[in-house]
Design goal:
Length: 419
Amino acid sequence: MKRISLFFSLCLSTLLLCGCVFPLQHVSPDPDPALSLRVSGSPSDSSDFAIPSPGSASSSDAAGALARQQAPAGLPVIDDPKLAVFWYAMADAEVFAFREQFGPLLEDSGLPFREFDAENDRYRQLDQIRDALSDGWNLLAVQLVDNRTADEVKEILALAAGTPVLFFDRVPDSALFADLLPAGRSDVGFICTSPAELGSVQGQMIGDYLISHFSSADLDQNGEIRYTFLVGDRYDPDTLTLTQLALNAANTVLAGEGYRLLAFLDEEDSFGFQAAPDGVGSSEAANALIRSDIESYNYANGNMIELVAAGSDDMALGALTALQAARCNLGDGLCATIPLFGIGASVAARTAVSLGQMTGTVDRNASGYAEAVLTSVRALAAGQTASEAFSALAGSSEDFSYAEGLLPVLRVLPRPFSA
C-alpha cells in the first residue's frame, strides 16, 4: 500500500511540475463563420509581423513559432488572432469617412475581423464587447462611445482582462490617464489625434489662405475679416480646445504679417463661435445657423460674413448649402466665394474643395489610423507591448508621434487638404 501511495505521489508531483514549466495554452474558440468576415490573400509585405491567411495550418504554426521567439518573456502570443473593431456610431459622418479608409486595409490584412456598431450607446458597446470576447475575438480595437470620462475604458479593461485592447480616435483626455491602466497591462494602448493638433492645422490653413487672398476675402475693405466658427456641443472640452487653437493659430499667422485679428460676427459674444442648439454638430444645424446669420450679416447691410470655419466636415457642408442658397460658393468662378474650412477630409468635402466650393479641410489621416491599428494588433499578437509597437511605428513614418508617458499613446498627425 505504501508503495502504491508513493507511486501516486510521484505522479502527482510530476504533473504539477510539468504544469508550471509547460503550462497548457488556452485557445479561444473559433468564432461562428457566419459572424466573421474572412478574407483571402496575404498580409501587407510592409508589416513587421506577418499574420498568415486563415485556414493555413502550416503557415499558422510557422508564424506562431517565429512570434514566440520574438516575444519578450512573460507576454502571451496569440497564434490565431481575430480582430473585433467597435465603432461608436456608423451613422456618424466622421465614422463613415474613417471606415472608407479602414475597409480596404482590413480586407487586405489577412485577419479575420468583424465590425460592431454601438449606435452611440455606451451600454450597447459594452454588451458587444462582452459578446465578442465570449465568441473568441481575441484582439479589440475600440472607438469609445463615452470619452468624456475614463469610466468606459475601465469597464472595458475589466471585461477584457488578458485580451489586448487598442482604443483609437475617441479616447479620454490625457489628464484622466493617471489611474486608468491596471498594473501589468502592457497590452493596452491609445491611438489618437489631439483636438489641439486638429485646431492648429486648421488655423494654419486659414491664416495662410488669408495672407495670400486678404484683399478678395475682405469684402468691405475695412482691414479685418468677419468670421464665424460652427461647432456642435459648446460644453465639450475637445470642442473648446479645437476652436481656441484654430483661432489662435490663424491669428498668429495674420499678426505675423501685420494684419488685424479675426473679428467674430457678434462683437458682444465672448465665446467666438456658434454652437448647434441641440449640441449635435450636424449639417442641418450648420445650415440653420448660417441661414440665420445671413439675415443680419449680408451684402445689403454691408457686413457680409467673410469666413466660415467648422469643427467637422458635416457642419462645413451644411454651411455650404446655406451659402449657396445666398448665391455664394457655387464654384462657377463668377459668384463670390466665402472662405470655408472643415475638418475630416470626407469624400464630400474633398469633392467640394476640388470644385472650388470649399477652401480646405483637415485630413484626420484615417489611413494612418488604419495602419496604426493593424500594425499594432499584429505586434500585440506576436507578443510585443503597446509601447514597443508604437515606438516602432513612430520611427518608421512621419504620420506618427510617440513619447513615453503615463500610458502608451500614439499620436496620428493630421494633414491639411486644399486645392
